[in-house]
Amino acid sequence: MSFSSILYLIKEGFRNIYNHRMMSLASVVVLVSCLIITGSAALISVNVNSIISSIGDEDQITVYLKPELSDLDSIKLGPELSALRNVDSYKYRSRDDVLKDYKKSLGDDIFEAMQGKGNPFGNEYKLKLRDLSKYNETAALIQKMDGVDTVSDRSDVAGKLTKLNYFVTVVGLWVVLVLAVVTLFIISNTIKMTMYSRRFEISIMKSVGATNTFIRIPFIIEAMVIGLASGLISSAVILSLYEPVRGAAAGVISMIGPATQTAEQIWLPTLLVMSAIGMAIGLSGAVISMVRYLNKEGGAILGK
Amino acid sequence: MIHLENVSKVYPNGTEALNNITLDIGKGEFVFIVGPSGAGKSTFLKLLIREEKATFGKLSVNGRDLINIKKRKIPYLRRTMGIVFQDFRLIDKMTVFDNVAFAMRAIGEPEKSIKKRVGTVLKIVGLEGTENRRPRELSGGEQQRVSLARALVNRPEILIADEPTGNIDPELSFEIMKMLVAVNRRGTTVIVVTHEHELVRKFGGRVIRIAEGELDSDYFISTKYNPQKPAPKPAGDESAAPPDDDDKQQTDGSAEKPEQNGSSDKEGGQQ
Description:
Chain A is 73% helix and 8% strand. By secondary structure, chain A is α+β, with helices and mostly antiparallel strands.
């Protein structure tokens, strides 16, 4: 195919969009809506996963020892804890270190009277687990040990987030599927209308020996440009709303802030994935309508 | 060039459009296909351009077997043909130049040769200077000439004209027919489907009459336009003498029985 043919076909694709601008606009609007919902569901899922994994990164559990347990007994407990199969490593923190941390975060004045023997805190251990999913099992074993007061419990948050992620993924998938079908229908109708309005030209092209591929290319370009435009517009909408929404969510639940992805991290993948999905939907819609059209009514030349 | 042997066409709804047609059309012939409405003329053309596939029989065009031809090869078969439609099929939003160029662009010809060849062909059909006009600004005859230019621009070996004068007045019809004869004289095989007996009598040539889906007759009318070019004898048709109707009447020549095996090329005729 010559260079001028390629230029001609691209021009024809854009001409199709212009000639059926209202239908093209309708397709873009529907596709943008679909992609915004798809993209939002995907970003929620990504961020929930990110929060879950940030909990996973902090795969430490804190073992609070009884305040009356002596420092020596507390230190002796260390090897016992590390003997547990799910414990990867441990770190001892004395009651003075614990008090220091509280003083740092809440202010010196309140804890002034708690120095020395007045320290109400017990010593503690920070344990790194090998497998967070066996959290409950390990916590129960530790809880049974002498001198252990309580064990920090994060399994509940992890479980809830896993359920939320599952919900977002399943619901998101269904929403995306339904919208994809609707969008395919709209796009294929747009292309069918374009082909119908150009049936005259198509019959002439067929009569002079144009191949089906040559006839199809402008329509494929039309559909892919609609898809690409929709991908770019929906990415722009999502990215412009992302930080405000993330900020608002972080205001409600503080852990969302550091655990979630920033706009800087997601803009490029969002743009690329949304554009690719838009073009893929456009292409599929075009192929569906073209194959049917060219094999049936679009195959007529003399047409009597 | 075109060979039909016991060709029949039955549409999926059961309509038997053509029945057991056997004939040959040689390179460079000028052939009229005549017959009443619904006789099967359009189906005959559809088989030639492979818009429809023959149900039975053998059919080949330019050595290509049209019964077993692969779908993807059909466009290349059509590139050896030019089609002139009764309703012109011109695209209103395009200029005359672009309408003609469209046929070249559709098969991926480079823009450089498009510019060159479209100009030449418009000159041949007498439309030089109308390049930038729209079809609606032209008369019916001129529009048909644009359609003819489009059919010729890819230098077809066979020109098929489906009722080319059906939508234009008699004077202009005469002009169009003269152009078709001129195209034929350049060596292109021309097949004209028409209802207009007057034109057939005036221009003469080989006349194939189809009636009720069958080859009714195949004869030659000699005129000053087609002085001495007898048609080949259609195989298996012993009663190929001209029928006793308007189609077989002569103008300044005589109706002849078809001769054996389409020797038209050798006999000169319009070449």
